[in-house]
Each structure stands twice: as structure tokens, then as C-alpha cells.
Amino acid sequence: MGFPSSKWISNLLFCCFFAGISCNSVEKKIYLHLNYTFPCVRLLNATHQIGCQSSMSGNVGVLHVLESEENLDWVLSSGPNPPYMVILDAPLFTRSIMMKLKSSSGRVAGVAVVAPNTNPAESFSPHTTCPNENTGVYSETYGPAMANCNMTVWNPLGNGLSYEEFDFPIFSLKDDNDTRVIRQCYLDHNQAVNNSTPQYPLCAMELYSHMFAVTDTATCMRRNDISFSISPEMVCDPLGDYNVWGSTRPINNTVKGHKMWENVVIAAARLDSRSFFYDIAPGGESGVSGFVTLLAAAHALRNATQEAQPNRTIVYTFFQGETFDYIGSSRMVYDMQNKQFPLDLDNIHSVLEIGQVGLRADSRLWLHTDPVSRRNDSINQEVEELIKNLHLAATNLSVTPVAPTVSQPLPPSSFQRFLRAQQIPGVVLEDHQSEYVNRFYESMYDNAEYLNVLYPSDLTPEEQLKFITASAKALTEVATLVARTLYMQAGGAESLLSSISADPQIVTQMLYGFLVRPNNSWFQELVPSDFTSHLSDRPPNMYVGAIQQPSEPTLLVQYLLANLTGSTVNVTQEDCQNQREDKDDKDSKHMYTYVWVQGAVPPNSTEREGFCVRSSARLTKAVSPAFELRQFTTSEYSTWTESRWKAIKGRMFLVASHELEMLTLGVGIGVLLTSLLLTYVISAKADILFSSGREPANATY
Ligand SMILES: *[C@@H]1O[C@H](CO)[C@@H](O)[C@H](O)[C@H]1NC(C)=O
Ligand SMILES: *[C@@H]1O[C@H](CO)[C@@H](O)[C@H](O)[C@H]1NC(C)=O
Ligand SMILES: *[C@@H]1O[C@H](CO)[C@@H](O)[C@H](O)[C@H]1NC(C)=O
Ligand SMILES: *[C@@H]1O[C@H](CO)[C@@H](O)[C@H](O)[C@H]1NC(C)=O
Ligand SMILES: *[C@@H]1O[C@H](CO)[C@@H](O)[C@H](O)[C@H]1NC(C)=O
Ligand SMILES: *[C@@H]1O[C@H](CO)[C@@H](O)[C@H](O)[C@H]1NC(C)=O
Ligand SMILES: *[C@@H]1O[C@H](CO)[C@@H](O)[C@H](O)[C@H]1NC(C)=O
Ligand SMILES: *[C@@H]1O[C@H](CO)[C@@H](O)[C@H](O)[C@H]1NC(C)=O
Ligand SMILES: *[C@@H]1O[C@H](CO)[C@@H](O)[C@H](O)[C@H]1NC(C)=O
Ligand SMILES: *[C@@H]1O[C@H](CO)[C@@H](O)[C@H](O)[C@H]1NC(C)=O
Ligand SMILES: *[C@@H]1O[C@H](CO)[C@@H](O)[C@H](O)[C@H]1NC(C)=O
Ligand SMILES: *[C@@H]1O[C@H](CO)[C@@H](O)[C@H](O)[C@H]1NC(C)=O
Fold first, then answer.
1. Contact 225, 611 (CB under 8 A)
2. From the CB of 587, is ligand 6 less than 6 Å away?
3. 692 lines ligand 5 (CB under 6 A)
4. What parts of the sequence cross the membrane (predicted)?
5. Which residue is closest in CA terms to ligand 9's atom 12?
6. Are 58 and 188 within 8 A, CB to CB?
């Protein structure tokens, strides 16, 4: 940008003269504040930063709607008005295009991806091909031939975009009227017709998502410490939430460490998921299918474990943050090793983990085991026993457990973190033999539609909640299999197996609640009244987050586990909230938790009838031990942190030419300089200028 030429100066004079009229075009005409936008944010680990951000004042670019990959030339080299804000339809949100945009050296101001309202026909996974490859059990010292997915690549469709770093903002837009306005603005103002250069004013967009943290976790934690001593301004927070757990027999939660007479079977599932964008991680197949199955199994076991208590206790665990290098399970194992959990690793008899189980083809369910620990005869025997129980439990069910024919490592699973600490027999249930059948692993499309949780179009929300979908029926079978297997693992009698079966009604309601709408009449009944405002009308976001408080999905799972495995007790609201059965009771809180839930509205009444639920469902911290130990560069534990930011927003407007903007700036500076000069001249020559009206300073009367 050179100095304004004479033409511009005359323009400027004209502009200043008719201030109200022609200078208006210089002002940005705001068209549209983007309301339903989801950003990609910055995350950091021990060595890297990933994700996206804008500059401190937001990134502005001329809109360009990309029509195809060939069309990229305009953005990358030939377009005359860089930087560009690129609008992509979801099918163009590919690694190839994004990497070209990434290396565009400043010609890209940002990207907005228009998320479709229905899932694409092809596959899409922005995750890595080998999830959590460095923090599982396989390493140079443990089954080296299986480390780094050498033997089985679990997520071959993964394009790794979620783990790239972009120095421009990337937002997702809902495909609605706003996007129509954006496209129209582009067509009206920016489209190059017959290779002519589009004329100003042009349609532009500003995206603002400046991130405070840079470089890596150690750096940002250091800056946290420094800034904390000056002002409580943090730059990043550890990813983390809470794990949920409960047991078929109450366990004294106040006494930590090894319990002499406890021998427990752990039934595990994971709670969290992620996607490229911050707030849309439905985690249907990757998370919901597994933990809904486990909750339904726990429900199916309530009667049997109360009436004919087997010798071993079954412990249900739901892990948070597993997506980010096993935050939840590594923390629980760490707590067990350090006497901060009411059980330790020696209390564990065996582990049954429920992975992705929502997409079974031909009714088969695959039993994954660890070939390394099975080289030990006694472990192998226990694993064989568990497999035998699974086969037995499947009698008369339409689900067939099958062991993979080739020896292969465990898929990414929480169980790997237990094996890392100690040899424990266990099996991981999955709907895939080797690579994932999930085409949308850790993406925004892993949703209700993908799991086929769909309803006839004429149903009211209340009818949808109750409607038993085919997917619910299929998962109910898996839940029954899991429940019966756990019962036998716990030492229960085979003769009682046929009395244990999961309830399709409960399964379908849970799928509705977690994949369609948490704010439904059933969930409202089983949560405390102060939680009702957190029940949303959108599918919950399963991204673990960094808020240090239990998230909506975590609490929902806890309340569900309490309802499905606990019992109602006739206790006043006050005693219930004080964790006791009556005024003198000081002991129950060690064994149980009490929740006063809203309950239903009885017929002919307007008020809900609350009641007290007693259960063993509890929360434990799911924050990586790396932050407990302040080892921010460790490779043993997850080190993921999330950057803080001030605001996330976007808007669209028309810009006059870049030159004109610079001119405005020039004029501003000119006016400033002139006024400075004038002030100087005036004050320097003040005695001359104002002498007539002034008395001599030394005048005395
Ligand atoms: C977006 O938000 C702005 C300000 O909050 C509001 O005025 C506008 O109506 C909203 N637009 C839509 C489409 O909801
Ligand atoms: C990967 O596996 C192959 C056999 O499948 C083996 O020959 C090779 O050594 C392995 N590579 C590593 C690095 O372990
Ligand atoms: C941090 O994340 C990057 C990007 O995914 C990865 O390449 C690197 O190995 C991770 N570092 C550690 C210590 O896990
Ligand atoms: C979108 O536009 C259509 C037609 O212009 C209109 O009927 C509809 O109400 C609009 N939707 C929203 C959410 O504004
Ligand atoms: C573009 O070029 C075509 C063929 O050269 C011509 O028919 C058409 O009118 C042109 N359109 C505009 C808007 O100039
Ligand atoms: C649980 O442990 C606490 C602390 O040792 C003890 O006071 C309490 O009596 C125990 N409760 C039961 C039921 O064993
Ligand atoms: C559990 O037992 C109760 C009463 O004994 C019965 O009403 C209920 O149907 C049983 N539930 C299951 C899942 O078997
Ligand atoms: C369960 O415990 C009882 C009493 O402690 C014992 O008699 C029985 O043999 C045990 N059953 C199994 C299967 O271990
Ligand atoms: C096999 O595992 C058992 C139980 O973990 C252990 O006590 C035993 O020492 C192991 N045997 C070998 C040969 O490692
Ligand atoms: C679970 O919730 C249902 C429906 O609100 C309720 O009828 C039942 O009593 C609850 N059970 C427990 C143990 O809280
Ligand atoms: C609950 O307890 C109260 C007072 O202790 C008693 O009056 C009431 O009948 C009990 N309700 C039930 C359902 O047992
Ligand atoms: C509710 O009220 C209606 C009319 O007042 C009455 O007929 C009905 O029996 C009531 N039902 C209950 C459960 O009290």
C-alpha cells in the first residue's frame, strides 16, 4: 500500500465534505451475526499444540464459496483480494483440501464448514488411524510387535485432521437460513463472472476465536502459575471430568486401599468422545452404545444380585476422557495404586469392557483379548473361563460371541491401562473383528441417525421416548449377554441366568435421552430439581471438556445408575440431602449416596412428588495424574490441556475496497497529525495569538 495518490486524496476530500453520504460506504455494513457456529479450539499436550485460532482481533477475509478442489486456485494463488474466508460444504472438508489451505501462506483468513443436516454417504473420521497409540499397554517393553498399530490399524479411515494445527479459525455452520444468506451475499458480490475481477464492495466474514495458550502444556501451566500470582487469569486447563462408578454390594468408600475380603469383577465402558469441532461430539457408536448397554446390564442385574448375592462384587465403571490418552482409566488405576480408591488392583478378579457395540453385522460380537498376558497360564485360564461364560450367557440369545481367529492386540480400550499396571484377565467386547466398522469414528456424524435411532415422523416427543427402535432391541440383547456373563463371573448360579434379562424399554429411553433429547419426561423424573435446567433439547456434547465440574452426561449417567441399581428409601428430603437415613445415622454415608430426585407429577396434581434414591453410584475425579504429579512432559499419562479464550464469534458484512479502508486510516492519521501540529502551533504561539486578551503575568496591582 503506497501513499494515497492524488485521486484518492480528492476522493477523501469529497468524502469528508459530504460526510453523511459517501463515507457511509466505508463503514462496515453488518449483515449477519452468526449464531449457530461451533469453533475448533486449541488443545495442547506435552509436545504439541493442535486445533485452531484467530489473531487477537479476529480474522477478516473476503468470502469465497469453494465449489471443488480444482476451484482452490482462486484462493491459493489467482484471486485478487486475499485473504479469503473459505466456505466449504462438508464433502470438501477433506485432508487434502485442508492441508493445502493450511500451507497457503496467509491467503486464507479462515474456514467455515457447512455441516449438513443428514449424514454423508461416504465415511469421515477426523481422528488418527491409531487412537491413543502411545499411552496404551503395547510398547517397546510389552508386545513390541504390536505397538503403534503395527498389527491392526484400528481406524484406517482416520484422516488425522483433529490433530493438526491451523493458524486460522475454523468454524462449523449449521445449514440453515444464515448459510443461505451467506451464499447469496457471495453470489451477489464476490463471484467472478467470466473471469472478471469482482468489484468492491465485497462480502466478507470475520471469525474470532483467539486462544490464550501456546506451544505446549508445560509452557501454558508455567504461564498459569505466573499469571496466578498476579491475577487469576489462567491460560489453559487440564482436560478432565469425573468417572462414574457403582457396585452391586455397597463398599465402604471412606476406607481407601486394599479391602481384605473383596474380590470384584469390573464392568467398564467409556463415556466420552470428540469431533473436530468443540461442541458437537455426539459419540453415538463410540461412547453411547457401550455405556447404555452397561447401564441396561446393571439394571438387569439388580434383582438377581439382591436376591441371590454372588460371592464377588460387580463394579460398574464409566470412564471419562478416554479419548485423550485414557484420562479416566489411568486416573482410576493410579488411585488404586496409591490407596486413594476404596479398592486396589489386587481386589480385581477380572475385567469385562464394553466397547463399540452398536453396529453389529450378522449378530456377531467380537471378544478381544490380550495375547501378551495370556502367555501366562493362570491368566490364560481365567480368560478362557470368561470366554466360556460369555458363550454360555449367549444361549437362546440372538447374539453370537466370537473370538477373532488371528492373534491380535487389544483394540484401544480402558482395559489396556489396567494391564499396563498389572496382569489381569479380561475381555473387550466390540462389534468389529479387526478394524472399526464405525465409518464416523470421533466425528460429528457418529449420531442418532448413524445408529439408526430413528422414529416414525408422526410421533410426539413423548411417544418417541417410549418407542422401541430396532437398535434398542439389538442393544438389549447385548446388555442381557453382558449381565448374564457378569453374574457368572461373580460366581452366581447358572440356574438363575434365564431370569436375568435387560429391558428394551429402558434401553430405548436411554438412547433417546443421550442421542436425541436429554430434556425428556423420564430424565426429568430421575434428576434433582436443580439439575433440570441443565437438561438440554439437543444431544449432549460428549467432549470431555476442562470445566473441572461434572458435566451433563456424567451426572446423567450417575443419576441413571442410581435409579437403575439403587432403591427408593422413605427418608425426609433433609436427611436425604444430608446423606443419612435419619437424624442419628452417621454410618450410611460411607456405604451409600443419597439423591433427592424430582419424581413424576401424579395424576390430578400439579406438583412433582420427589423421593430419595439410595445407591452406590459415585463420582471420582477423572483428571490425569500428570497434573497431580505436576509432570507436564510425562509420556506415562495424558497431558492434554485446553486453551482458554475470551470470546468466540463470527459475523458477515460488506467491505469497501481495501484501499478505501487504508485511506480512511490515512485520513485519520492525517487529521491526528494536523491537530497535533495545530495544538503545538497554538500553544507555542499562544502569547501571540491570545495576547490581546491576556494580562501580563507580572502585572501587579
Ligand atoms: C442472532 O443473534 C442476534 C443477536 O443475539 C439476534 O439479533 C438475531 O436475531 C439472531 N439470529 C438468528 C437467526 O437467530
Ligand atoms: C511389525 O510387524 C511385523 C509382523 O507383522 C514384524 O515383522 C515387524 O518387526 C513389526 N515391526 C515393529 C517395529 O515391531
Ligand atoms: C502430542 O500430540 C501430537 C499430535 O497428535 C502427537 O504427535 C504427539 O506424539 C503427542 N505427544 C505426546 C507426548 O503424546
Ligand atoms: C428460513 O426461511 C424460510 C423461508 O424464507 C422461512 O419460512 C423459515 O421460517 C426460516 N427459518 C428460520 C429459522 O428463520
Ligand atoms: C459471460 O460470457 C458469456 C460467453 O462469453 C456471455 O454469453 C455472457 O453474457 C457473459 N456473462 C456476463 C455476465 O458477462
Ligand atoms: C466405614 O469406614 C469408616 C471409617 O473407617 C467407619 O467409621 C465406618 O464405621 C465404616 N462403615 C461400615 C459400615 O463399615
Ligand atoms: C425385580 O423384582 C421386582 C419385584 O420383585 C419385579 O417387579 C421386577 O419386575 C423385577 N425386575 C426385573 C428386571 O426382573
Ligand atoms: C461363596 O461363599 C460361600 C460362603 O462364604 C461359600 O460357601 C461358597 O463356596 C462360595 N462359592 C463360591 C462359588 O466360591
Ligand atoms: C502368572 O500370573 C500370576 C497372577 O498374576 C502370577 O502370580 C504368576 O507369577 C505369573 N506367572 C508367570 C510365569 O509369570
Ligand atoms: C427410577 O425412576 C422411575 C421413573 O421415574 C421410578 O418410578 C422409580 O421409582 C425409580 N427407581 C429408583 C430406585 O429410584
Ligand atoms: C414413610 O415414613 C413416614 C414417617 O416415618 C410414614 O408415615 C409413611 O407411611 C412412610 N411411607 C411409606 C410409603 O412407607
Ligand atoms: C382425577 O380427577 C378426576 C375428576 O376430578 C377423577 O374422576 C379421578 O378419579 C381423579 N383421579 C385420581 C387418580 O385421583
1. no
2. yes
3. no
4. 662-682
5. 376
6. no
Q: Whose CA is nearest to atom 13 of ligand 2?
A: 145
- In which element (H, E) is residue 351 found? strand 348-354
Contacts of 401 (CB under 8 A, 6+ apart): 364, 365, 366, 367, 387, 390, 391, 394, 429, 481
Residues with Cβ within 8 Å of residue 483, at least 6 apart in sequence: 296, 297, 298, 300, 301, 500, 501, 502
Cα–Cα distance measured from residue 428 to residue 421, given in angstroms and rounded to the nearest whole number: 17
Distance CA 394, CA 391 (A): 5
Q: Minimum-distance ligand to the CA of 139?
A: 2
Residues 564-569, mean pLDDT to the nearest whole number: 96
Ligand 2 binding site (Cβ under 6 Å of any ligand atom): 144-145, 150-151
pLDDT digits (tens, 9 = 90+) for 242-263: 999 999 999 999 999 999 888 9
Pairwise CA distance, residues 480 & 17, whole Å: 81
Pocket flag, ligand 5, residue 460 (CB < 6 Å): no
**Residue 308's pLDDT is what?**
83
Backbone phi and psi for residue 563, each to the nearest 5 degrees, phi listed first: -65, -40
What whole-number distance in Å separates Cα of residue 138 and Cα of residue 149?
9
Q: Is the CB of 491 under 6 A from ligand 8?
A: yes
Closest ligand, as measured to the CA of 193: 5
Query: Does residue 196 line the site of ligand 5, with CB under 6 A?
Result: no
Which ligand sits closest to the CA of 151?
2
Strands 364-368 and 426-430, bridge-based pairing? antiparallel
pLDDT, tens digit (0-9, with 9 covering 90-100), for 608-636: 999 999 999 999 999 999 999 999 999 99
Nearest CA residue ID for atom 14, ligand 6 = 252
Q: Does the CB atom of residue 563 touch ligand 10 within 6 A?
A: yes
Task: Identify the helix (H) or strand (E) that includes residue 112.
Answer: strand 108-115
